[in-house]
Write a structure and sequence with these properties.
Elements (H helix, E strand, L loop, with lengths): L4 E4 L2 E7 L12 E10 L4 E4 L6 E4 L7 H7 L7 E6 L20 E10 L11 H20 L3 H17 L5 H20 L3 H14 L5 H13 L3 H14 L4 H16 L1
Antiparallel strand pairs: 1-2, 2-6, 3-4, 3-5, 3-7, 6-7
């Protein structure tokens, strides 16, 4: 995940997954996007993931101004987080009942197509996608060993995007996805992005709560950093239950108790 960049005053973008570098949408072109919108409190007010991807003509005022600016900065297949100030969203009026007045909005947006042109990975076979994902994971591991955590995170996210495109999944691919999510969460914890780490670990746990042992621990670490002591305790307890011989988990348990008492 890259650092946030300011596209214009009031609109910033953080790239979560790089695109194909096949050009960006131009004004008047039709795009297909998946998205999730949330308030700064974390409350989700809209999402395409529980319905269907959204098709719009970009740059002509069909969507909020911040979307026009943000999406026209994206490349095909890119996944990004857009933070949009009220002046580029719904302003003083808001959009009742979900969006209050003067609300800053945060969108996770994935650009799926431009004028029906799809990302390169969508044209790959399952075997090719898995092969690329494995290579990207190894590249991420190499960067991680060098202490280049942001670069490693980018490789892990790109690998996960390729796996997400696989049409026929299985338990082996599920386990690979869990490993990628766990690795990405570690990178987020290293970068003090604890909320993102919690989100990634939660997804890993949802795939298989017994296989995602490290996700429980990484989420406990992130929750502790956020002073969510009850959540940190519950996650650590689950990690210890799944791997009782791991000394570092018990050390973390003692750290939680110590920091909770200090508060």
């Amino acid at each position: 995940m890259s650092a946030a960049i300011e596209l214009t005053p009031g609109v910033t973008k953080k790239i979560l997954t790089k695109g194909d570098d096949q050009g960006k949408p131009e004004q008047g072109q039709e795009v297909l996007v998946n998205y999730e919108g949330r308030l700064t409190s974390g409350t989700v007010f809209d999402s395409s993931y529980d319905k269907e991807a959204l098709k719009v003509v970009i740059g002509v005022g069909q969507v909020i101004k911040g979307w026009d600016i943000g999406i026209m900065s994206m490349t095909l297949g890119e996944k990004a987080e857009l933070t949009i100030a009220a002046d580029h969203a719904y302003g003083a009026l808001g959009s009742p009942p979900s969006i209050p007045s003067h609300a800053t909005l945060i969108f996770t947006v994935e650009l799926l197509s431009i004028n029906n042109r799809r990302p390169t990975r969508w044209m790959m076979s399952d075997g090719e996608l898995i092969q690329v994902a494995m290579r990207l994971k190894e590249d991420g591991n190499a960067k991680f060993r060098l202490g280049e955590f942001k670069a490693a995170e980018g490789y892990y996210r790109d690998a996960a995007s390729h796996l997400d495109t696989v049409k026929n999944s299985n338990n082996e691919l599920r386990d690979l996805m869990i490993a990628l999510l766990q690795n990405t969460a570690v990178c987020c914890n290293k970068a003090n992005d604890y909320k993102e780490a919690i989100k990634l670990c939660t997804r890993a746990i949802s795939l298989d709560s017994t296989k995602a042992v490290k996700a429980w621990m990484h989420r406990s670490v992130a929750n502790l950093k956020c002073h969510n002591f009850d959540e940190a305790t519950a996650d650590c307890r689950e990690a210890i239950k799944l791997n009782p011989k791991e000394k570092s988990y018990r050390d973390h348990w003692e750290l939680i108790k110590k920091e909770k008492l200090a508060k």
